[in-house]
Amino acid sequence: MRVTAVALLCAAAAASQGARAAADFVPARVELALLLDGAQGVSGLRAFIGGVEQRAPALAPGPQLAALVGPDLIAEPLSWGAAPAGARAIVLDAGAAGLTVPVLDARAARSSLQSWLAEVGPPRALRGSVPRGALASGDGRKLRAGLVASLGGAQRLLTASGAEAASLLAKLGKTAGRRTGAAPLSSDRTVRAALARLTGPAGLVVRGREPVRAAVLSLDGSAQGLVARGLLLAEAPLLAGSAPASSACAGAALLCVRAGLGPSGRTALGLLARTWLAMLLDPADREGADRLAQRAAAVAERLLVRSDGVDPRLLSGEYAPAWAARLQAVTVPSAGDGRSDAQGPRSVCVRADATAAWFGTPCPEAPSADALASGATTALDAQLELGALDAALQRLTPLDALRGGLPAALYAARLTLGGMLRGSGPVVVTGQPHPAGAEVEARWPLR
User: Fold this and answer.
1) pTM of the model
2) Residues 397-403: contacts with CB under 8 Å, at least 24 apart
3) Hey, which of 70, 201, 250, 266 has its CA 20 to 30 A from 301?
4) Region of 80 on the Ramachandran plot (φ > 0 left; ψ -120 to 50 alpha; else beta)
């Protein structure tokens, strides 16, 4: 009886590992990793993706996954002889995509691997630092590589594609084989504590750039939508205090972001302001505006960004597409009076008075009074109306597409994404302060 009880406890402990268990099989420094706990790890994601496909069939991921990593672990989690249990992951890193998955039927896995490799050329032995038995085909960006081998005491299938496929396959092999010096993602100090929160069957790890070093999110999908919860990691808190009151979003038909900012949040705001101004203005025209924006970002405690829509006429003209968004931003407190104005297809300005700093295109004469008042129950509240974005794209015509370039791409997006945008509710992101960055939740509903 005691032996049975111990066995049950061990089984329960193993079952509770969740998606974080897959981090033991992923190299430490990959740019993106989708972590899955057994075949059941994709059940929610499969339901959500099925809902997206119904609204936009062109977004079906199956063909893309098959080209990138071979087996479609989303639609067919047991294809290629994959085992029903055990940690698995899809990773992206340095121009390559890869997969690691436990195998139940090694013969089926090797047969499927041979067929996948043969799609781009004759399979050949792959030499170098990869595990023995690795095969490759194709070259350049069409390079594919893979193997089925006993790694870390269990049979696993590893695949990779892209210009750096051989390098990624070698990293996956060393990590799965528990080779000395092959640090897994689970040992990375940047994300280790956040990974411990991934108790659900699916998780996502994305590397960022300073000040946001990474995002570690659990994923919960269904036919009704997708929910992502977890941490944004930074050197210092991204959020602090409370966001401006919800009344600040009145009339923001497309986008509204309200936030209370911490030290890393102010750094991120400065980078975003510099990037946006660079998309609008030539260097000589933006020098004064950038200086004023950086001064405002350095002291900002509360932020409001809002947009009442997009002007499609400016999506297909001679100006940068950033001009199409009617956008306003306000920060408090002020860093001192200042004024910088410029002119493009419409006016743009960065200004500050004794109480606030603000940016706008078109330029407002004064900031929204609601941005000056706190009152929210969260430190971050952001909402994007995908239906409003679809309405803007629907105003593009085939004549716009004939111009080529961005207008043609946007018209193609209208045809491809329109059903999904119309069939989605508003995407909502909320957040609270956390010493490691910010605790966030994002909801993308389907209707």
Assistant:
1) 0.90
2) 400/315, 400/316, 403/316
3) 250
4) left
